[in-house]
Amino acid sequence: MMQIPLKSIDEIQGVTLEGIQSERDIVLRLLKATLPVASELAIKAAESSTFSPLAIAANAALNSVITLVAAATPKCNLAAPAEDIDVRVDSSGNMIFRCRHNTPHEWDLGGRRRP
Ligand SMILES: [Zn+2]
Hints:
alpha+beta, 2 helices, 40% helix, binds zinc ion
């Protein structure tokens, strides 16, 4: 189970979204539904073997999240110019948001900045 309350990516400080609002609203709603599933799978998969059914399911779920996050077009405004934000999985299986600034900014799924 998720240990932290999920924050919608548009609620994270330093993050703004671009694109058409009506489409963005759909993407954010689907992301909110998909993220907890993908996040739990990623954590379980980190404890599993590489090609286990769980790991394969986790990979498919992660790809859905990556695509949805890209569709939300999040930008990091913590440095100029603003840069895109992607989803990554750390070695413990924790999903994080990370921007493409030269010195990347990272957030956990609860919207807290990571050091
Ligand atoms: Zn950044």
